[in-house]
Amino acid sequence: MSMTDTLHDTAAQTAEGLPDKGGPAQPLLIVKDMQKYFPVRGGIFGRTQAMVQAVDGVSFEVKKGETLGIVGESGCGKSTTARLLIGLTEKDSGEIIFDGQGVGDSLNLRDLRRGVQMVFQDSYASLNPRLTIEESIAFGARVQGLSDPIGRAHSLMERVGLAPERFAQRYPHEVSGGQRQRINIARALAMSPRLVVLDEAVSALDKSVEAQVLNLLADLREEFGLTYIFISHDLNVVRYISDRILVMYLGEVVEVGPVVSIWEDQAHPYTRSLFSAMPSMDPENRTKTPPLTGDPPNPINPPSGCRFHTRCRFVDTVCKEKAPALRELPGRGGHCAACHLHDPDSGHDKAGREDIW
Amino acid sequence: MKAPLVEIQDLVVRFKGDRTVHAINGLDLTLQQGETLALLGESGSGKSVTLKTLLALLPPKRSEVEGGIAVNGTDVRKLKGKALQKYRGGEVSMVFQDPGLALDPVYTVGAQISEAVMRHKGVSRDEAMSTALDMLRRVRIPSPERRLKNYPHELSGGMRQRVMIALALACRPRLLLADEPTTALDATVQIQILLLLRELQREFGMGVIFVTHDIGVAVEVSERIAVMYAGQIVEEGTTSEIINNPRHPYTQGLLAANLHDVARGERLNAIPGAPPPLEERPTACSFAPRCPIAGPECRASLPDFVTLAPRRRVACFRALEAAAAE
Amino acid sequence: MAIAETIDAAPAQRSGYWAGVASRLRRDPVTMICLAVLALLILSAIFAPFLGLQDPYKGSMIARLKPIGTPGHPLGTDEQGRDMLARLIYGGRLTLFIGLMPVVLAFFVGSILGIVAGYAGGMVNTVIMRTVDVFFAFPSVLLAIAISGALGAGIVNSLVSLTIVFIPPLTRVAEAVTSGVRSLDYIDAARASGASALTVIRVHVIGNVLSPIFVYATSLTSVCMILAAGLSFLGIGVRPPEPEWGLMLNTLRSAIYVNPWLSALPGLMIFITSLCLNLVSDGVRSAMNVHD
């Protein structure tokens, strides 16, 4: 029996523990109105002085087997979203439904963690320097009481391209950054998860190594039938790996849709700016003017109305007063944007016009 | 041709410690007055070490430097004491990746810039302060009068990097060294800083060496690119030559790994393996173990530079073959 | 099946952490010499009865305050005519014991408190750390004297008071290191795998916080030695006629005009021991790559 078959078997075993409940049509993950504010404490008594509105009313779905890319700048809440999904941070309000089961009601946190795993950005900080690679990978399986944790660790090491006989007994500082990230991927897969959250998982790697890891991720997705949430600031990488893209700005979803549709025509002015900010790869045709000026505002006191209105070149009175809702754009295959420009009834003087872009 | 602004000849840098690291292994580089060159490479390729050598910033006890480094005709390795201080910050200055670490948290922005100006130009405090104000204007900081009195922690990341640039350019250096100055910034801020650097370079007419790992950034900011690998330059040329007609297999691999025009879901043509640890000085092509077209000669000896055109060179045995095949 | 590209053979050396520490220590002559001196002191104290020394309690009215180099008394005799060499070596037993034991005890208690406070955070942290701060507010000498004074003289009471003195600083360090480690991704990864707090602490926290706490504790041993000797000197530590360096320093004080070299001997022993402890602590710190 080959190594892969063994893995399929183990995957099947765990599937008994966390089976596919809702069938293929049921989204693997539904997030409804999720909110998380962090208090900013100060003064002698540590009183709450302000709230960082890290994630504010975020809703989205992830279908089974798809890859959802989440993009946005620092402070947009993409990493907090990841931590909320995996239960590392407790949400203030909102619902997370994993395969039809509400997390907290019919699905407890311990079971959720067998279904959802995460790979972090910093490959070094995410491995315990005092544990051998084998022990790090086997730890989760041990905790969950799965059979033969070391055997699992070895077959996964093999699968991510690290020969167990050479690497099992090494320590994290003895291997390269790319190898460490493979270890982190193996550790996440050791729990036989169905959803893997990749939080800037390839961002710290060198470009040549990044491509290797992206290939590996694509293979693993196919082989284990995984669903990915891929968080990154690199639009090229997100486009390559994702089926749909979700764009966040200051704790809110501003646009979500199929990658092709977004790539062809970004509906939200912020998404458009983000795309124009990508360095040009054509030396004869370099970027002439920056799409936006200034830095993203502080999420402690986000602007009123549409949070992007302070930097938006289409800003109108309505943008400052009323926050736009996420609306589906007609005929775009589920492409949604939260912008008054796309709502003819919003009262924005340029609403519905196509010639302004 | 005028004397070059920077001339590095056969530079070798070794770090000693528990184990020796051969960081730079025979690097030649020239930069003309007013030129912008991007040093493109991955971590450990020696690009940052090259910059530090130019500023004589390497720890003398742990590093061995050989070879010639001349900036504007001055032998940098011979500079000491006062002359070195005058050179650093006056003739050449540097912009770092993390402005939060490079700026002093206990002084206001204005105090830091004016202090540098007073030290190098010997002008009065008022005059230095007005230079500082002028610099903040030039780096397009809104309401600069107010910002002069701000401390670094009161500024956003992009603002801080602008201040860092203002500080670096306040004494009108002939050479600006930039070490990944936009890597820590958000995408929409990165492009602003890149365009700002491009404008200021034109305005001040200085030479710029811009270290980056991101090809896109190199394209936006520089007119020439030198690709580094394992402590050596493997290919050099104008930006459009490197982007449109890369000759070294490593450059080709890097361009492919940028994913700029890869079809979705298509298997990536990844360079296998990882860069060498450089515990020994390479005696053969360092890239050969990862190279798809390496032959026996690549593993046997170091490739010399093949000059394809004036100031267009590539260190590869197969460069001419590949060119002939096209 | 698409095999992941076989990856590089970056030949990393295999070496355990402690092997590296030991080899760095071996290459540090100062630390090695100090370790040897300490080992000599400790071994001679332990094996004092087998060294053929004179009885450290037996005095002689006629042979009082003999100078260094007296035949039969190589280091002279004290104010009651007891052999100084024997008393210094026997004195090492008590002095080293009450100099080191409180730090060892405080290391355990402080580490547990600090790790719990650092890992749990929130209310637990506030309660533990503020309580510790109250003790921390007093200078250590004052606190030791106050507790010892309240408990009365005696070896056990000295141990208790010194342990209490050293728990707050060790708790502080343990808490600081733990909250640092707590914020690292591997702790999150472990939590995300469903491990309980106790498991995470056992597997992932302890191994990574213990060495900096240990290094800090070694730097406290010399302070503790001096404090213990100081308590005895003040008469609220070890009671006569037990040989103990601090106490000996006190009783020989009056002889300082008669025989200054002799009365300085216990002080010299305290000095050498605490110096060696300090230097060893520094050496261990750099060998373990602990930065603070």
TrEMBL record, chain A:
Gene3D superfamilies: P-loop containing nucleotide triphosphate hydrolases (3.40.50.300). Residues 29-275 form the ABC transporter domain. GO terms for cellular component: plasma membrane. It catalyses: glutathione(out) + ATP + H2O = glutathione(in) + ADP + phosphate + H(+). It is a peripheral membrane protein. SMART domains: AAA (SM00382). This is Glutathione import ATP-binding protein GsiA.
TrEMBL record, chain B:
Belongs to the ABC transporter superfamily. PANTHER family: DIPEPTIDE TRANSPORT ATP-BINDING PROTEIN DPPD, OLIGOPEPTIDE TRANSPORT ATP-BINDING PROTEIN APPD. Keywords: ATP-binding, Cell membrane, Membrane, Nucleotide-binding, Transport. It is found in: Cell inner membrane. GO terms for biological process: peptide transport; transmembrane transport. It is a peripheral membrane protein. Pfam families: ABC_tran (PF00005), oligo_HPY (PF08352). It comes from the Bacteria. InterPro entries: AAA+_ATPase (IPR003593), ABC_Ni/Peptide_Import (IPR050388), ABC_transporter-like_ATP-bd (IPR003439), ABC_transporter-like_CS (IPR017871), Oligopep_ABC_C (IPR013563), P-loop_NTPase (IPR027417). SMART domains: AAA. One of its GO terms (cellular component) is plasma membrane. SUPFAM superfamilies: P-loop containing nucleoside triphosphate hydrolases. Residues 6-255 form the ABC transporter domain. GO terms for molecular function: ATP binding; ATP hydrolysis activity. Signal peptide: none annotated. Transmembrane segments: none annotated. The keyword Disulfide bond does not apply. This is Peptide/nickel transport system ATP-binding protein.
TrEMBL record, chain C:
It comes from the Bacteria. Gene3D superfamilies: MetI-like. One of its GO terms (cellular component) is plasma membrane. GO terms for biological process: transmembrane transport. It is found in: Cell membrane. It is a multi-pass membrane protein. The chain crosses the membrane at residues 30-53, 94-121, 141-167, 213-238, 258-280. Its main location: membrane. It holds the Pfam family OppC_N. Residues 92-281 form the ABC transmembrane type-1 domain. Keywords: Cell membrane, Membrane, Transmembrane, Transmembrane helix, Transport. Belongs to the binding-protein-dependent transport system permease family. This is Peptide/nickel transport system permease protein. It comes from Tropicimonas sediminicola.
